[in-house]
Structure to design on (412 residues):
């Protein structure tokens, strides 16, 4: 096998290994939203408190994301990923043993700390292994793991109905811990010569957190990306956090049916969006240096009317169709967000930059989740939140359209 063939095999093997981690990352965080009925029966809480369980996770996750990204720029990305998986899996297992709302809240906050380090490190590691010609597709394939994990989150409601709310946390916490041990033997950073070719630049000791922040915030384009990712985070978490409850109540579904409908259909469409958005951006970028920017814009122009229809319809089949179109178009973004950041940020600070974007996204997303719970407590229809989300998606499309690349991709 030639050196190029070995490098390509290794690059895609890393994507495969991280795909499983991404699945567990989102499964562990999302499944709680699909078991509201069982959880509230076991541990009494208001809707506001139930929303707060996911909000506190997002706020902690978001606040620590910039520093988590810096760790991935400063130290071994693969070791940061493995440690993150191990810690959040143990915390998932411990969540299943909580007896009070306060214990649940602490467990979710601690899980936010451990999960914050994964996505920036994983996407930066993929960018290290994959040059311009496969970068969006590799990112998209990895993010399908996120979609499958979030889609399988519906298992939480189903398992909660059969075995109790805590069963899923104990089960998947154990699986994640075992997989972290396996990764210790197989997941590695790229060889030094490959890293040099990919222009990931300076040695680790030259990466400074405050210099990274100054570099990122000295660019007007980064502010556009910050607003874009923040608003999109608000929309995404509003849909993920409250869609199961909305479907259950609006269309009179059982907890299990609503959980699977809200996650299964959405993430089936998401898989297509990630793969098509990745392949399309990779191919178009050969002739248009703005392709990785324009593909997400087009996707959002499909997603905005879909959310509007989903919130207004009284027919379940139309709501599901709108949900699927939203998942398809919105995820052109996830296949291209790190590739777009590679066009904008200093190569040394990619993970830190993604962490900063996650900070704003999670804070805004957490507010939208908590606001949904407060609105429900005040007897306000939550579909108003979805209507506002549709308008926000259009604003996101405009912000991304204004982004201008600063770097030329390698490997075209």
């Amino acid at each position: 096998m030639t050196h190029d063939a070995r490098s390509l095999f290794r690059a895609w093997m890393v994507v495969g290994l991280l795909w499983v981690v991404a699945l567990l990352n989102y499964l562990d965080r999302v499944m709680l939203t699909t078991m509201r009925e069982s959880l509230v029966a076991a541990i009494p809480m208001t809707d506001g408190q139930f929303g707060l369980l996911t909000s506190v996770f997002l706020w902690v996750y978001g606040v620590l994301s910039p520093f988590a990204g810096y760790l991935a720029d400063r130290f071994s990305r693969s070791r940061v990923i493995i440690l993150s998986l191990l810690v959040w899996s143990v915390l998932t297992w411990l969540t299943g043993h909580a007896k009070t709302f306060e214990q649940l809240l602490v467990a979710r906050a601690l899980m936010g700390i451990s999960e914050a380090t994964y996505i920036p490190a994983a996407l930066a590691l993929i960018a290290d292994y994959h040059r311009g010609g496969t970068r969006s597709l590799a990112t998209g394939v990895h993010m399908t793991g996120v979609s499958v994990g979030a889609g399988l989150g519906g298992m939480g409601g189903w398992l909660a109905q059969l075995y109790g709310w805590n069963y899923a946390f104990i089960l998947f916490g154990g699986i994640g811990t075992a997989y972290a041990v396996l990764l210790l033997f197989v997941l590695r950073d790229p060889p030094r010569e490959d890293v040099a070719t990919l222009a990931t630049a300076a040695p680790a000791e030259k990466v400074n957190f405050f210099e990274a922040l100054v570099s990122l915030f000295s660019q007007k384009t980064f502010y556009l990306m910050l607003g874009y990712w923040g608003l999109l985070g608000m929309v995404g978490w509003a849909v993920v956090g409250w869609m199961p409850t909305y479907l259950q109540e609006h269309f009179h579904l059982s907890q299990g049916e609503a959980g699977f409908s809200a996650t299964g259909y959405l993430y089936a469409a998401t898989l297509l969006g990630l793969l098509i958005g990745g392949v399309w951006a990779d191919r178009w970028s050969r002739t248009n240096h703005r392709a990785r920017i324009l593909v997400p814009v087009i996707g959002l122009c499909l997603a905005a009317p879909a959310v509007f229809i989903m919130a207004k319809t009284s027919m379940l089949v139309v709501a599901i169709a709108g949900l699927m179109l939203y998942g398809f178009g919105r995820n052109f973004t996830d296949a291209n967000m790190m590739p777009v950041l590679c066009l904008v940020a200093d190569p040394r600070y990619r993970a830190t930059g993604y962490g900063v974007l996650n900070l704003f996204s999670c804070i805004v997303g957490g507010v939208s989740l908590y606001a949904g719970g407060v609105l429900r407590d005040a007897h306000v229809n939550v579909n108003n939140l979805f209507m506002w989300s549709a308008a926000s998606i259009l604003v996101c499309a405009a912000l991304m359209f204004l982004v201008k690349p600063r770097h030329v991709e390698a490997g075209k």
Remarks:
- The CA atoms of residues 1 and 7 lie 10 Å apart.
- Residues 198-204 have pLDDT under 50 and may be disordered.
- The chain has one domain: 3-401.
